[in-house]
């Protein structure tokens, strides 16, 4: 950029020099504006890192909170997160549960039941097949576990049905002899449907 020299010769500003006057650049992290509007397009631009964060303005002018992956209903979760959500939503029948959330819990139940039943058979019975003291304790643990997880088991199954846009009352199909549990397996492996969002509240 050239400037007029009082002696008549043009002078050129070095490339590394900072502009002065209305075009002066703000400090890092400050707001920058241009002629014709806050930044020429009708909004202010923030210098530095993008302002994505956890809070963004929604399409209707209100602020919405961005949640981390794995906390939204119907999203893929790992084994540990699925078990955590299973107990955290102990009696929550509203909302949705993804296939991974539901089937990781099913695997958890299978592993616990298999281990406890194996222990009862291996070390919890005497030579006559009768339960000994340890077998009684293990059987009691298994019973308490099954009783304590009954409500959250029903809740996660209902949320899984919600995820495929089905009413939780469809769970009663499991009471039909022979074929009821097969129908439930088919329903719980179906992919999620966006219409299931109507069960979120």
Describe the protein's architecture and organization.
It is a single chain. By secondary structure, the protein is mainly alpha-helical. Helix content is 37%, strand content 8%. The strands form 3 sheets. It has a two-stranded antiparallel ribbon. Strands 3-4 form a two-stranded antiparallel ribbon. Strands 5-6 form a two-stranded antiparallel sheet. A hairpin with a 5-residue loop joins strand 1 and strand 2. Helix 2 (99-123) runs antiparallel to helix 3 (133-148) and helix 2 (99-123) runs antiparallel to helix 4. It is elongated. The chain starts with a strand and ends in a 13-residue tail after the last helix. 13% of the residues are buried.
Alpha-carbon distance between the two ends: 60 Å
What radius of gyration results from the CA coordinates? Answer: 32 Å
C-alpha geometry: elongated
Largest sheet: 2 strands, antiparallel
Structural class: mainly alpha
- How large is the count of helical segments? 5
| Total DSSP E strands | 6
| Pattern of helices and strands | EEEEEEHHHHH
Percent of residues in helices: 25-40%
* Strand residues, percent: 5-15%
- Mean pLDDT metric: 75
Unreliable runs? 28-71
Main sheet: strand order? 1-2
Outline of this structure?
The protein is mainly alpha-helical.
